[in-house]
Amino acid sequence: MTQAEIKLCSLLLQEHFGEIVEKIGTHLIKTGSQPLRVIANDTGMSLDQVKKALCVLIQHNLVTYQLQKRGFVEYEAPCSRVLRILRYPRYIYTAKTLYSDMGELIVEELLLNGKMTMSAVVRKVADRLTETMEDGKTMDYGEVSNTFMRLADTHFIQRCPMAPETTETSDAPPPPAPTLAVNEKDMYVVPNLNLIGKGKRRRSFDDEDNGEHKAKRQKQDADSQESPPDDGIYWQANIDRFHQHFRDQAIVSAVANRMDQTSSEIVRTMLRMSEITTSSTAPYTQPLSSNEIFRSLPAGYNIVKQILDQYLTLLADDPLEFVGKSGDSGGGMYVINLHKALATLATATLESVVQERFGSRCARIFRLLLRKKHLEQKQVEDFAMIPAKEAKDMLYKMLSENFVSLQDRRQR
């Protein structure tokens, strides 16, 4: 973690949550895990301020806590979680692209609030959409609920872990920190709420009537206030799923650039079939048969089964090895080699950076070193077909910028 990353995290926290939260968050990023009283002592802030700041950071999944063996709780703020704030606009735009304005607003509300119940999200989004509609038109809660369910079905949103229920008759003291857990089977199950209603517009009143109407509204809200049917079931944006979607898009784009649009559409179909059944960290997708892929191709994509098999064979034989063959049943079983694809994309990015910074000859040497792992200077000159003086200068440039390194091969 560099000083630049810490400074960036500090600015992000201050912009989104204010000075107090920024001070606590930056302190934890710099120092690592610390208990509550140590944080208050080191920052010079009151316990109440520290507690409220930690509550905000935990609500937004920016701080984690862990119960230590000695009975106290330590809090930690991973820098990577704070830096994810920079990608919030991209997450929201992705939801808009896939699920229109409703999906955009649902994900935006969850990112802005950290954790929310489904009923609260649906009402808030319906109200916001109603504000943008023509007079006399309103957004029905049912339409927003349907989009919410689609986001859950594709795992872009998920339930938050919950504290276990405690019985009131228990005499044991509560633990210093609750152990949160969620059943994997229930993580994407949407409660059957049957929300009925429509979005409401905010009404504007004259200044002299503002106080009276506000007090009346508050009294009505208090009288009719009931706990929502999904009270205690909170939802959050599934950041890993968004990153998985970005990875899949990069793989599809790489296949399209290397081969053609039909090949990329086949790979897109395979990734879409595996997006829920395959973990985001898995090295391969689940094996898919040629027949399954053929049935899952987008409607209107007119290629016959024989052509599909030819494309799959070409993809499996390609030196990049994005697609692999894992069996012959069902017309042939195929997988996407995710780790291999990501390594290839990362290598191509590195090569382009070297070429842009040092020129095509340095890029040739860099590619050679990537392929051969270790080479002596004389071997670099011979294999790259570059004069000795130029090769030496280029190697020194890349060495000074830490793109290549030296290793003494005499030491065994």
Automatic annotation (TrEMBL):
Localization per record: Nucleus
The keyword Transcription is annotated on this UniProt entry: yes
GO-annotated molecular function: single-stranded DNA binding
Keywords attached to this entry: DNA-directed RNA polymerase, Nucleus, Transcription
A GO CC term attached to the entry: RNA polymerase III complex
GO biological process: DNA-templated transcription
Domain of life: Eukaryota
Transmembrane intervals: none
Domain RNA polymerase III subunit RPC82-related helix-turn-helix: 7-65
Domain DNA-directed RNA polymerase III subunit RPC3 winged-helix: 350-409
Stretches the record annotates as Disordered: 164-183, 199-232
Positions of the RNA polymerase III Rpc82 C -terminal domain: 146-345
Known partners and oligomeric status: Component of the RNA polymerase III (Pol III) complex consisting of 17 subunits.
Function: DNA-dependent RNA polymerase catalyzes the transcription of DNA into RNA using the four ribonucleoside triphosphates as substrates. Specific core component of RNA polymerase III which synthesizes small RNAs, such as 5S rRNA and tRNAs.
Family: Belongs to the eukaryotic RPC3/POLR3C RNA polymerase subunit family.
Protein name per UniProt: DNA-directed RNA polymerase III subunit RPC3
Source organism: Chelydra serpentina
Lineage start: Eukaryota, Metazoa, Chordata, Craniata, Vertebrata
